[in-house]
Amino acid sequence: MIAGALIVWASQAVGAPVCIENHSSDALFLVVDDLAGHRQGRVVTSGDRLCLDVPADRARAMVGVFSDQDAVEGCSRLSRPGQTERLIAFAEFDNCRWAPTPRGMKRGMGGG
Length: 112
Hints:
Helix content: 10-25%
Oligomer: single chain
CATH architecture: Sandwich
Number of strands: 8
């Protein structure tokens, strides 16, 4: 019984990935941040994705898109563990186009 409890605890601690897919025509620098100190970023070509496993105790994460890794301005979007955000078109200054994503409304969180 204790071993089973440990397995459940370990699987809950891992959480779920947050992913961002590049459906634009450009190779862009994508970032996934779990908002708890873990971040991953790299150049992602059209049709590819970047994912980061987010701890189970995190309700949100952030994805970001930049023209390159030295860019200051880009686009960002809140996401949830288990969610894939799909970038349709990149435009600097938070003016990107994203594919619709199911976002069940929760108190204190907007959909969108």
